Each structure stands twice: as structure tokens, then as C-alpha cells.
Amino acid sequence: MAYTVKPGNPCESDPLSPPSLNVPTPCSNGNLSGVDFAIIINPWFQGVGADMRLDGGFTDRIPGNVPDLSRYACLKGSGGTPGLIFAGDGTTPPDYGKGEASETRWQVYGEGGKFAPGNSGIRTSYSYISAAAAKNSLIPTKLPCEGGFSDCDLPLDLANGLYKPYSIDPSEQISLTLNNYTFPPNKNYVILVDGNLEILGNIIVPNGSTVTFAVSEDIIIDKNVGETNINSSNVNVEGFYSAGGSIILDGTNGDCSASFDKRLNIGGLILANANLESGSLQNKRDLCEKNFDIPSFTGSRAVTGITQFQINKYYQSIKNE
Which residues make beta-bridge pairs with 143? Predict the structure, then answer.
């Protein structure tokens, strides 16, 4: 919103300050009083060594207050290079605000820049992985949840395998609400969810393990998951997450009157719109005045397996037993 005032004699102002409050701005003898306005910086995000793709156009308006060495949409990762930014097949360049794509300026947009899956669709989608499991005669194991699927605490000794929340029939459509959990080391998991997945706590995947969540609808990360210390880069959610619909990083709806949101750090891979319909990545985290120099959401590459490889590997182990 633009707010224009003109001090002097006679002074002029927008009759409302701000318009949403429906309060006139006093103007007397060339002096203005009660002028109420704020400069708003929108939340922004940052990758670390990971490719990022927004096929509808890439917009990540980085503020000018961010230090020069960090004023990038994607920073270098542990491998010494940043990721590649894909912005679809439109002719409009990505919008990085006062920043740039990366130190190397790697970006792709324009003709040929939009992702085009094969006839089989997105290979991390719920439907594709379910079909691949069925083709291998692999029936998902019922996910063992203490507290039920609406308040799921996984057991500490969760075995390798392909899992799905259901009561009796593996074809049941049941959503999953998952509490904080650290997966065991040196294990491989594929978890299918025919519905929504809501994450209420930190999900940690140690080195040597792989975890893939393939969800038919939305993945929601609760607003309480994240770092209260907004300078912290500690990872909160690890693994591979594929949503048929949207991935929603929940927040407090931009209400800065009480407090700002927690910073969310994801390590691994996230993919929205695996159904190729209308899903999107929705970042609702707002750090309010801290948006000037801190991203509300970061995504970094982590050691995660390839879903099809995990299914085939697990199937082979079953056959060899």
C-alpha cells in the first residue's frame, strides 16, 4: 500500500490513516499528526546446495539488507556448489528482489525449462509408487502407530519396509498425523499415505537411512515445527516428501502483533503437485521485521534414496529370505 502525505500550508493527506482503520488523519496549520504506516518486507526462502523448481515462475524477493555473501536464492552446499534454479517455460526472468540466483547465477527458464514427465507421470507420486509396489507383489505393512493415525507415535525399533496407514484393507484411504520421530540408523522406508500427511514435530533421518513419504493429497508441516532462534540452521524435517496436492508450511497467518513464526529448515527433497493438477508449495511462515535479513524457510540437500530403488531393493530382500 502506498501512503502519500504533503506537509506545508495547506497540508494534504490520504483521508484515512491507514485506510483499514477508517480513522481520519488530523491536518492543522500545515502540520500532520497521527500518520500511521509501516514498511512491510514479505517472507522469503533460501536453498542450500539444492536444485529448486517453480514451473509457474520463480519469485523469491530477497531484501537488500541481507549480507552480500548470502544475498542469493541458493547458497553453496557441502559439495561446494549451489543448486540450479528452474523457473518454467515462461519468458519472464526469475524475480530475486535485491538478490541473485546464486554465486554462479545458475538458472533455467524459457523454452524447454518446464518439467515434462513421461507417460507414466511423476515417479514419486502416490499412484506411481503404489502401482510399482503392486507390480512387485509387495503389500504395504500396516503402519504401527501408538495413539492411532490421528496422533501417531512410531516405535523406536521400526523395521525396514513399505508402510501405509490402514485399519484392515490396504486400499483404505486414511490420513496420517505424525509426531516427532527419529528413524533408526541404516534402514530404508517408504511410507504411503492415501490422504493428507500432517507433521507435528521434528522428523530426523540419520546418515545411512532413507525415508520417502508419498502422499496422495497435501503435506502440512505444523507451525510449531521449526526454530525459535531464527538464526539457527538446525534441520527440523529430513527425508523425501512427495505430495499429490500442496506442501503447506503452516504459520500464524502473518499475525505479527503477538510474535513471529518459527524458521523452518528442511533437509532433503520436497515435491508438490505430483498429481500434476493444481498443487503448490505454500510458505506461510512470516518472520515479520526479521524478514529484512533472515529467510523464513530453508531447504538443503540431504542423503535420501531414490524411491524406485528403495522399493526394488526391499522386494529383492523379501525374495532372498
Answer: none
Contacts of 148 (CB under 8 A, 6+ apart): none
- E-strand stretches of 85-179: 85-86, 95-97, 107-108, 141-142, 161-164, 176-178
- Amino acid sitting at position 52: M
Beta partners for residue 247, in sequence order:
219, 281
* Phi, psi for residue 201 in degrees, rounded to 5: -150, 180
Give the contacts of 17 (CB within 8 A, at least 6 positions apart): 3, 23, 24, 25, 34, 35, 36, 37
How large is the greatest C-alpha to C-alpha distance in the chain, in angstroms? 91
Grid coordinates standing for 85? 534454479
Residue type, 91: T
- Cα–Cα–Cα angle for 32, 36, 42, nearest 5°? 145
- Tens of pLDDT, residue by residue over 24-79, are 556 666 565 655 555 678 899 999 998 999 888 899 999 999 999 999 999 999 88
How do residues 87-119 score in pLDDT, each as one tens digit? 888 888 999 999 999 999 999 999 877 777 776
pTM for this predicted structure: 0.83
Give the chain's count of helices (H) and strands (E): 2, 25
Residue 112: all three cell numbers together: 524447454
SS3 content of the chain, % helix, strand, coil (to 5): 10, 30, 60
In angstroms and rounded to an integer, the radius of gyration of the C-alpha atoms of the chain is 23
* The residue to which cell 524457510 is assigned: 297
Burial class of residue 60 (count of CB atoms within 10 Å of its CB; 0-12, 13-18, 19+): buried
d(C-alpha 135, C-alpha 106), whole Å: 39
